[in-house]
Amino acid sequence: MLREFKEFIARGNVIDLAIAVVIGAAFGKIITSFVEGVLMPPIGLLLGNVDFTNLFIDLSGQRPVSLADAQLKGLPVIAYGMFLNDVINFVIIAFVIFLIIKSVNRLRAAPPPPPNTKDCPYCLTAIPLEATRCAACCSDVAAA
Fold first, then answer.
1. DSSP 116
2. In the predicted model, what is the mean pLDDT of the chain?
3. Cα 135 to Cα 122: distance, rounded to the nearest angstrom
4. How far apart are CA 55 and CA 40, in angstroms?
């Protein structure tokens, strides 16, 4: 069993996956910091100085001043602002990752396959590379 485990770990794709998880976690922290520190303040400003994290519904009826006040007093609240903030963060992060993956895939585009046809020198019809006679004009052509 130990030998099988060593073979499993020694596979290249397991190592690649581990590296991807570490890099993904680090990249996720960068994007989260960007979203929370750079993007969300202007969005909150555009929406009338709203700080999404402080939006809540008081279930106790005691009308706390802020979410922190309600949590300090142990009052039951629905902190929908935190949820809304997390949803917006997720959408922005997912969009940024989509753009990065799209650009990487564009860079890694597969080269076009080699041509498998040639043009007939007489009628310019595409014919297979191995053809010795054109199907359109019946001319003899040299094989490639």
1. -
2. 82
3. 12
4. 14
CA-based nearest residue to 101, from 48, 46, 27: 27
What angle, 0 to 180 degrees and rounded to 10, lies between the N-to-C axes of helices 2-10 and 12-34? Answer: 60
Residue 79's identity, in one-letter code, is A
DSSP letters along 34-83, please?
HIIIIIHHHHHHHTTS--GGG--EESSSS--SSHHHHHHHT--EE-HHHH
- Which pLDDT tens digit goes with each residue over 94-137? 887 788 888 888 887 778 888 889 999 999 999 998 888 998 99
Nearest to 54 by CA among 46, 39, 44: 44
Sign of CA dihedral 66, 67, 70, 72: negative
What are 77-91's pLDDT values in tens digits?
Answer: 888 888 887 887 788
For 9-22, the pLDDT digits (tens) are: 776 677 777 778 88
Parallel/antiparallel/unpaired status of strands 126-128 and 77-78: unpaired
